[in-house]
Specification:
about 180 residues; mainly beta; Lipocalin; 1 helix; 11 strands; about 5% helix; elongated
Length: about 180
Amino acid sequence: MSAFPADLTGTWTIDEGHSTVGFAVKHAVVATTRGKFTSYSGGATIDAASPESSSIWVEIDAASVDTGNEQRDGHLKSPDFWNAEENPKITFKSTSVKIAGDEVVTTGDLTIGGKTNAVDITWEFGGVAKDPWGNVKAGFEGTATINRSDWGITWNAALETGGFLISDKVKLVLEIEAGKQA
């Protein structure tokens, strides 16, 4: 895509019931552990004629983490990771948007645990459709890889066999269905 399709112009809101905001990280060097957040909001304002003036934003309730393990979720909420009690929100707000071949890259400020760094999220556009009730929906899949240590998240444990319990590298995965606002 050399530009956004014209029907993307407008303001879009994340459909939380049909989206996933999650992450994946290597555990014990040999396996991947995945997690998601169950409470978040966000959207985008898209200008198909001038994609660089488009913007996106996401606000995540840090305490809504769900990895399928209550003990691990509690540890992630603790000061060892993002200290959800003192920093209840994880946020992303784009600062630039550019077209890169078939993908859209949004650069923006990602704040975790009260610390902010620039991150590039690469998006694939899934298409636009009208649901049976006449609502216009669009699909987007975004990915980024970050180093958690850039946010001061350094808790870890050494393994007897070498390496560490948790990788510094974390893959962010955003599978978004958004509804077009009237």
